[in-house]
Amino acid sequence: MTANGIHKQSFDSIEETLSAFRRGEFIIVLDSTDRENEGDLIIAAEDITTEKMAFMIRHTRRPGHILPLRAREGGILERKGHTEAAVEFCRLASKRPAGVICELVEDGEEIEGLAARTESSMMRRDGCLRFGQRWGLKVCTIEDLVKYVEKVNGMHVCNGTDKAI
Predict the structure, then answer these.
(1) Which long-range CB contacts under 8 A does 16-25 form with residues at least 24 apart?
(2) Which residues have CB under 8 Å from 112's CB, separation 6+?
(3) Which residue from 17, 89, 127, 136 has the fewest beta carbons nearer than 10 Å?
(4) Alpha carbon distances (Å) from 65 to 36, 83, 138
(5) 3-state DSSP assignment of residue 98
(6) Interval 97-155: pLDDT, tens
(7) What is the number of alpha carbons within 13 Å of residue 96 lying toward its C-beta?
(8) In terms of pLDDT, which residue wins out, 6 or 139?
(9) Other CB atoms closer than 10 Å to residue 52's CB: what's the count?
C-alpha cells in the first residue's frame, strides 16, 4: 500500500521514472514477457553510494554474469535488454553512460534445519510492482522506454532499420 492506502497496480511513465533517475534514485525496469520477464534494479554508476550498494546487494542477484557488462552501440533500439536500458536512462538524464544493474529476486522461505530456501526465483511483474511500492521506487518497462526513445528521436524501428516518422 502507498501512504494513501492505494495499491500500485500499473507501471510508472517513462517521464516519471526518468525524473527519479535524474535525482539519483533506483528505478526498476522490466523486460518483455517474451524475453526474460524479469525486473532489474538500476541506478546510474555516478549515483551509487555505500548505502545504496548495501540495499542493492540485499535485494538482488546477478546469476551467470561477470561484471562489467557492455551495452550495444545501438542501445535500447538495437537490443531490448536491461544493460541497454541502464545506459539509455543515463543518456536521457545527461549522466555518464555507466549504470549499476542487478536482477531482483524473490527470496522464498527458509527450510528449517537446511541451508536452502523454497520457491526462490527472479522477481516478475507483480513482485516488482510490490517491491517498487514498498520502497517508493518507480517501475517501468523496456517496451515503454523504446517507445519513448523513438518518440524523442523522431524515429521508429521496423525490422532493425530506422525509419523517420
Answers:
(1) 16/138, 17/89, 17/138, 17/139, 17/140, 18/89, 18/92, 18/93, 20/137, 20/138, 21/89, 21/92, 21/93, 21/138, 22/93, 22/94, 22/95, 25/137, 25/138
(2) none
(3) 136
(4) 15, 12, 25
(5) coil
(6) 999 999 998 888 888 999 988 877 889 999 999 999 999 999 999 999 999 999 998 86
(7) 8
(8) 139
(9) 16
| pLDDT tens figures, 56-97 | 999 888 865 556 778 999 999 999 999 999 999 999 999 999
> Would you say residue 51 has pLDDT above 90?
yes
Strands 27-30 and 138-141: parallel
Contacting residues for 162 by C-beta, under 8 A, at least 6 apart: 77, 155, 156
How far is the C-alpha of 103 from the C-alpha of 82, rounded, in Å? 9
What are the residues whose beta carbons fall under 8 Å from the beta carbon of 13, sequence distance 6 or more?
140, 144
Which residue(s) pair with 117 in the sheet? 110
Task: Please provide the size of the chain in residues.
Answer: 165
